[in-house]
Design goal:
Number of helices: 3
Distance between the termini: 55 Å
Strand content: under 5%
Helix content: 40-55%
Largest sheet: none
Radius of gyration: 28 Å
Order of helices and strands: HHH
Shape: elongated
Number of strands: 0
């Protein structure tokens, strides 16, 4: 089959755009530097400065999540200690103050919330790594 009469001279492949240079080692070279993903590309000194601020904000956000997790664990431990255990006699558990609440039920809810905090922390740490 002869395709010599077809004109493909005007066709050109689109460029992939700027290439990302993500060095894992310390370097002063900011040429084609990408942070986290290719869309976060450094083009100038100003964009480098804004990206530095962005990384600081991301890291501060991670520390905020860690602190909230610690505070939740402390307050939930205090709350659980105030609840009657499942081994208490029926008279203490049936009081109006603790109606329907026990340490076992509270622990289940707290474990789910702690697991959610942990999942957010792990995702966040892999994201900023």
């Amino acid at each position: 089959m002869d395709h010599s009469h077809m004109d493909h001279g005007g066709m050109h492949m689109p460029s992939d755009g700027p290439k990302c240079n993500m060095n894992m080692l310390f370097t002063w070279d900011t040429t084609d530097l990408c942070i986290i993903f290719p869309q976060w590309h450094i083009y100038s000194t100003f964009s480098l400065f804004i990206s530095l601020i962005g990384v600081i904000v991301l890291t501060a956000g991670y520390e905020f999540v860690r602190e909230m997790s610690r505070r939740y664990e402390a307050s939930s431990a205090e709350y659980t200690n105030k609840l009657p255990s499942e081994d208490d006699d029926e008279r203490e558990r049936s009081s109006l103050l603790w109606a329907g609440k026990s340490a076992g039920e509270a622990e289940k809810k707290q474990k789910i919330i702690k697991a959610a905090f942990y999942a957010v922390q792990v995702f966040y740490s892999f994201f900023i790594m």
